[in-house]
Amino acid sequence: MNWEELLKPILISGKEVLPLIEGGKGIAATDGMCSGAWAAAGGVGTFSGVNAHIPGMEDLALLTSYPSKVRIKRHAEMIERAIKGGIAQARIAYETACHQGRIHMNVLWEMGDMEEILNGILSKVKGMIHGVTSGAGLPFRLAEICAKHNVKYYPIVSSTRAFNILWRRAYHRLSEWLGGVVYEDPWLAGGHNGLSTDEDETKREAPKPRLKSLRAYMRSVGISDRLPIFIAGGIWCLSEWTDCFDNPDLGTVAFQFGTRPLLTQESPIPLSWKKKLLTIKKGDVALNRFSPTGFPSSAVQNAFLKDLQARLERQIPFSRAATPLYVLPLKGKMGTFFLRPEDELRIQAWEKAGFSVPLETPSETLVFVTPAQYEEIKEDCALCVGCLSSCRFSGWNCDTTEPALAPDPRSFCIQKSLQAIVIQGETEQAIMFCGHEGYRFAQDPFYANGFIPTVKELVGRIRQGL
Fold it and tell me: Which end of the chain is more exposed for a tag (fewer CB within 10 A), N or C?
């Protein structure tokens, strides 16, 4: 098969480039160096604008150190750092790309005060960022902000329904700045995904009918077939997607690679994380609902995730007042609870195993944790910087007109956890997001004997359909 003929350059963000996109991912998992290298190879490099690292501030102690004792002030400093980091990584990407390809930035729409951060970055990097991708929520104002700064916008959606809502409520007014639509398979993509409440996470739907539906809707509202759909989530090699090339049902498509670019020489993730990727087995990556964003996500089933799963099993209902059903009193850190007599033996077993501290959840249940876990949860909540627009774990909410959320000890501090893996290389005691095709590193002969390619070598391999 002649891959050079199939991989024809297409127009993306104002320039003809290879239809090969580097996925942006989250905190520092892609930076200016690797995205610039991807663009230099002729495709679209995407760096993460989610709390992007400021050069010289790579130490975890510095990153997690916010001097103010007031959370709203720590939040303001977080915004300032995020803007500085995004500007710095955009410049690195632009210089590394050497005017080849295109540079995009990926942002998490549910990040705390994302609109201020996005405006702050784009106002200082004119001509360096050519497009912005955004998901994890419905980024209604993405179009307005990108149009203001003369860059294309690329919403990340997992269904036609999601794009329909975005189009009708916001995007139809600024359609000329729409650069494309990223369709992300919600069953196979790594990190946060867009499974809706009426979709079964155990039963994956085939992507091509969903892609066909998305294109049909785009046509129905007058969007040209030349505007690309980025196919994302579960993309490993192009030989598995040949029926998407020149497919009249799909129009112009490009392919977004999220997991494979993690394992390159230029990738900023630590060597311990890269080595761990080479050992993942099929089934090690699973969907879970522990993220403080409230979105389901895909991650490696490591010790961190298994502990959260076990925490759910140490959970019982309670009442704040004695009732005929709840008669057993229990004193805890958060007051006295009344429990069902039938739960007494379970509680005794948990206490014997060291899980002696009951913590209240928003679901009117108690979970039992160790004293050390309680102290960590208490400290993490106290040090919250408001990295999300609303956080189930800490109870933070950017919208001060809304009532505070009840903190949920069944979740975790996502910023702390992601920084621990990307800075310290902690692959067991931190959330390790990964696409469901990650097990293929161990099976693909390209990575034999622990080989880690450069971005240029990886793009060359992809261009061969492999």
Answer: N
**Which of 179, 82, 90 lies closest to 128, judged by CA?**
90
Can you tell me the mean pLDDT for 143-151? 97
- Ramachandran angles phi, psi of 80, nearest 5°: -60, -45
Residues 99 and 59 in one domain: yes
Residues 247 and 335 in one domain: no
Q: Is 172 left (phi over 0), alpha (psi -120 to 50) or beta?
A: alpha
**Euclidean distance between CA atoms 51 and 53, whole angstroms:** 6
Phi-psi region of 272 (alpha: psi -120 to 50; beta: other; left: phi over 0): alpha
Pair (226, 308) in one structural domain: no
Token representation of residue 310: 């076990």
Three-class DSSP category at 209: helix
283 within domain boundaries: no
Residues 130 and 49 reside in one and the same domain: yes
Please give the Cα distance from 19 to 458 (Å, whole number): 15
Contact (Cβ atoms closer than 8 angstroms) between residue 110 and residue 389: yes
Q: Write down the pLDDT at residue 401.
A: 60
Nearest CA to 207 out of 160, 164, 248 is that of 160
Task: Encode pLDDT of 287-341 as tens digits.
Answer: 999 999 988 999 999 999 999 999 999 999 999 999 999 999 998 777 899 999 9
Judgement on whether residues 255 and 310 belong to the same structural domain of the protein: no
pTM above 0.90, yes or no: yes
List, for residues 188-227, the tens digit of each pLDDT value: 999 988 887 778 888 888 999 999 999 999 999 999 999 9
CA atoms of 52 and 92, how far apart (whole Å): 12
Helix (H, G, I), strand (E, B) or coil at 192: strand
Average pLDDT value for residue range 134-141: 88
Residue 6 lies in a domain: no
Of 266, 271, 262, the residue nearest 37 (C-alpha): 266
The answer to whether residue 296 sits within a structural domain is: no
Average pLDDT estimate for 48-76: 81
Judged against a pLDDT cut of 80, whether residue 462 lies above it is answered with: yes
Domain that residue 254 falls in = 11-274+438-463
User: Cα separations (Å) of 251 from 119, 163, 223, 239, 341?
Assistant: 32, 17, 11, 18, 63
Q: How many domains does the chain have?
A: 2
- Do 45 and 160 belong together in one domain? yes
Cα angle: 419, vertex 33, 189; to 5 degrees: 60
Comparing CA positions, the residue from 121, 95, 92, 100 lying closest to residue 32 is 92
For the sheet with 315-317, list strands across it.
315-317, 365-369, 357-360
Looking up residue 254, the CATH number of its domain turns out to be 3.20.20.70
